[in-house]
Specification:
Keywords: Dioxygenase, Iron, Metal-binding, Oxidoreductase. This is AEDO dioxygenase. It contains three helices and ten strands; from the N terminus they run αααββββββββββ. The chain is of the alpha+beta class and about 250 residues long. The chain has a domain at about 75-135 and about 140-235: Jelly Rolls (Sandwich). Strands 1, 2, 3, 4, 5, 6, 7, 8, 9 and 10 form a ten-stranded mixed beta sheet that branches. Helix 1 (about 5-20) runs antiparallel to helix 2.
C-alpha cells in the first residue's frame, strides 16, 4: 500500500480503533480488529516524527547503573488521543528500562514497536481454585494468583503487533533490549480506576532452578501482587507527530 500521507495513516489508525472498540461484543469485531491490526502494522517511527535516542549528556553523567538512573524517567509516554472506548499513545523506554509485569483488567490492547527491540513476556490469569498446589513460601503477605506463562518473545519494527485481550496475554512485562525502544500503544477501553480498570503490578514467584536452561513455556506459575517498583516511573513528553482528530 503506498504511504501517501503520513498524517492520514495515524488518523486512519485512530478512526479504525474507534470503530473497532465501539462495539467489542458486536458481530463485526473480529473483522474490524483484523483491519486495525493491518493498519497498525504499517506504522513506522518516521510516521510519528520519532527517531531512536542515544544516551543524553545528562544521562551519561549519572555514573554507574542504567544510564537513565536518577536523571530522567526510565519510561516516558506521549499522549496522542483518548475516547471513552480507547486510548492511544507512544511509550519510550530508555536503554535497559523495564515496564514491570502488570495487568489490563477487562481490556484489549495492541502494541507496535517503532524502533529498538522489546522482550515481551505474556501471561494469562487462571481461574480461582485451578492451582494444584499452594503458593511457595516466598509469596509473603501479598495477594497471590495462579497464571499461565504463555510466551517470552522479542519484537522489532519488523514484527506484527503484539495483541492482548481481556483473557489472553492480559498480563505482560516489557523490557528494552540492547538499547532504547519505543512502541505505539492502543488500550481499549482506557484505564479507569472508578470502573474497575486499575493497573496492578506483580512479581513472578519461582522455585529453585532445575538447571541451566529456563523452564519451557507455556507453564503454570505463581504471581504475587506488589506495589509499583520504586525504580519504575513514567514521565510525560509532548507528541511530535501528526495531529489526530476524532
Amino acid at each position: 500500500m503506498p504511504r501517501d500521507n503520513m498524517a492520514s495513516l495515524i488518523q486512519r489508525v485512530a478512526r479504525q480503533a474507534r470503530l473497532t472498540f465501539r462495539s467489542p461484543a458486536g458481530p463485526a469485531f473480529g473483522e474490524n480488529l483484523h483491519r486495525l491490526q493491518q493498519l497498525l502494522d504499517e506504522v513506522r517511527a518516521e510516521d510519528l516524527h520519532l527517531a531512536p535516542r542515544g544516551p543524553s549528556a545528562a544521562a551519561a553523567a549519572s555514573g554507574g547503573g542504567p544510564p537513565w538512573a536518577g536523571v530522567v524517567p526510565p519510561v516516558s509516554y506521549m499522549h496522542i488521543c483518548e475516547t471513552e472506548s480507547f486510548s492511544m499513545g507512544v511509550f519510550l523506554l530508555r536503554s535497559g528500562a523495564c515496564i514491570p509485569l502488570h495487568d489490563h483488567p477487562g481490556m484489549n490492547g495492541m502494541l507496535k514497536v517503532l524502533y529498538g527491540t522489546l522482550r515481551i513476556a505474556c501471561m494469562d490469569t487462571l481461574p480461582a481454585g485451578a492451582a494444584a498446589a499452594p503458593p511457595p513460601p516466598a509469596a509473603g503477605s501479598g495477594p497471590c494468583l495462579r497464571a499461565l506463562f504463555r510466551s517470552r518473545q522479542h519484537y522489532t519494527p519488523a514484527s506484527p503487533p503484539c495483541l492482548l485481550s481481556p483473557h489472553t496475554d492480559n498480563l505482560h512485562q516489557i523490557d528494552a533490549v540492547d538499547g532504547p525502544a519505543a512502541f505505539l500503544d492502543i488500550l481499549a477501553p482506557p484505564y479507569d480506576p472508578q470502573h474497575g480498570r486499575d493497573c496492578h503490578y506483580y512479581r513472578l514467584l519461582e522455585g529453585p532452578p532445575a538447571g541451566a536452561e529456563p523452564p519451557a513455556l507455556p507453564r503454570e506459575v505463581w504471581l504475587v501482587e506488589t506495589p509499583q517498583a520504586a525504580d519504575f516511573w513514567c514521565g510525560g513528553e509532548p507528541y511530535p507527530g501528526p495531529r489526530v482528530c476524532l
